[in-house]
Amino acid sequence: FFFVQTLFAFRSSNTFPFIKMGFLIPNIVDNPEGWGPCNMPEEHKDIPYAPFSKSDKLGRASDWINQGYSKYNSRFGNQSSGVNNAFNFFANDEEDSFHLVDTKTVSRPKYGARRFQHNRNNRRNQEQVTRDSGAGADRERARRERQQAKKNQWSSFWQNRNNQQFVYASSVDIRPEWTVLDQIALASLTKLSYEVGAVPEAITSCGHLEFYDKTFDRIGGKQEVPLKRFDKRTFHQVSTSDDPIIGRFKNDEQSLVFATDAILATLMCAPRSVYSWDIVITRVGNKLYLDKRDRSSFDLLTVHETAQELIPDEKDNMNGVQRLSQEATAINQNFSQQVLQQGGEKFKMQEPNPFVGANEESAPVAYRYRKWKLDDSVSVIARCELNSVLDYKGQQLVCAVKSLNEFDPKVTGIDWRQKLENQRGAVIATELKNNANKLAKWTVQALLGGADQLKFGYVTRAHPRDNQNHVILGTQFYKPKDFAAQINLNVNNMWGILKTVVDMCMKLSDGKYLLVKDPNKPLIRLYEVPMDAFDQDFAEEAITEEQAEAPPEVEEKPEGEVEDDAPTI
């Protein structure tokens, strides 16, 4: 009413004021380094900052049941953004001042089955003291020890009832008249290290090689190729002392160690070995010969040697140690010949093969004789074997060809037919676990021989119960140095092991010695044996009547025919 009355008074006097409306320019803060305010306003300093993300749901002003929803892992509890965490309650330091005054445990009444347990234990202890101090204490103590031993025997039986224990036979019959000179634990060999920095000296090369057929690199897991047999071709496995090329250096004044790449690889990879092996060592003046025994199983490949599930050592078992070794060796020989270009160009070395006879068809192979200098007074000369040559971009690369074989997917733990196509890494990882020693020896031989590539073939049985017919599933190649790093093979440790064995043997007098890996313990023993211990008329083991019988004649088959008989070596 007052406002209306005043308005009429102004109108009557014609003195109504004119009010001018002004536009105030707001204060704009310029941020030259970015966008947004430079300083925090005073009225917003005490408000916590809650960051928002694109997935936040802004539907609740205050969330009192956030922990309850996260307990049941609902869609509200899964939001672990800053919006929910910024306003959560956190206990302060006031609760640290709270202490529990009465820490005495509440006594519980002794009733039921535990009521007289304390008295019973005291009575048992008193009876035990009386038995130990009275008459017949020794007899009573022996009785309790027998009861405890029997109880431990049954408990250990139930604990190890699923783990099969096998006792493997030694690779050579140890005679009682042989004297043990030294014993080395394999665990101590893993700590050795010695560097041979100089490049090996190339002495000569013998034999010839055939070119690798690249069509085998395109074989897939679903394109199985039957493995052929090459029975007419001879595979020479000559020992060190019988090598005429090595015999040229027997009158050299320098201290020399003669060996083959297989013997050196066995020594260098000794810490990974499980099965028994033996090497004959002959000291003649300042020369040291490392040989293998005649008619020994040294050249047979091992199968499933380092796996957790052991293989039984049964001669008649198709999946036993001996039968699997023979099968793997035959597969490796046949595969190394099948992947070559039959009747193609040959890559000849400096000298012909010294082991081939006049009318003999030998497998194409090349030998490199190389020399390493261990120290100022001792050098090593070794014969290294190569299998093929690969024409790659105008370069001729020498290769070492090897084959991995699968005998039963249920035993090996992985089916190659299913995994090799898409999970080849899992297959090679399983082989590294089950055959670590074999793969390490192949890698060492490739490094010693100076191979440019290491070719692997995956061969499996046509049927798990058929050890006579096999198929090729695929191939894979590695550079030896890269594969050595992948399997954790230390080159300095290899030479450290060889240097230790050579230094130990160089201290011996002239004679013949035997280095044997224990079949059931991680030990290597050095025996002194007679000079005629392993002659041709010397029988290492007792020969039974069945073994003395002549083997049945095998019908000859044309070369390249698919195998359908038991593998021959």
Helix and strand content put the structural class at: alpha+beta
User: How much is the radius of gyration in Å?
Assistant: 41 Å
Mean pLDDT: 79
Give the amount of beta strand, in percent. 15-25%
H and E string: HHHHHEHEEEHEEHEEEEEHHHHEEHHEEH
Largest beta sheet: strand ordering: 1-15-14-5-6-4-9-8-2-7
Helix content: 25-40%
Uncertain segments: 67-82, 537-569
Compute the number of strand runs. 15
Shape: extended
How would you characterize the largest beta sheet? 10 strands, mixed
Q: How many helix segments?
A: 15
The separation of the N and C termini measures: 127 Å
Description:
The protein has helices at 2-13, 66-71, 82-86, 117-133, 137-159, 186-189, 261-268, 321-338, 409-412, 416-419, 424-434, 436-449, 480-486, 491-506, 545-548, and strands spanning 179-185, 201-210, 225-226, 255-260, 278-284, 287-291, 346-348, 366-373, 378-386, 388-392, 395-406, 453-463, 466-478, 511-517, 523-529. The protein has 569 residues and is an alpha+beta fold. A hairpin with a 2-residue loop joins strand 10 (388-392) and strand 11.
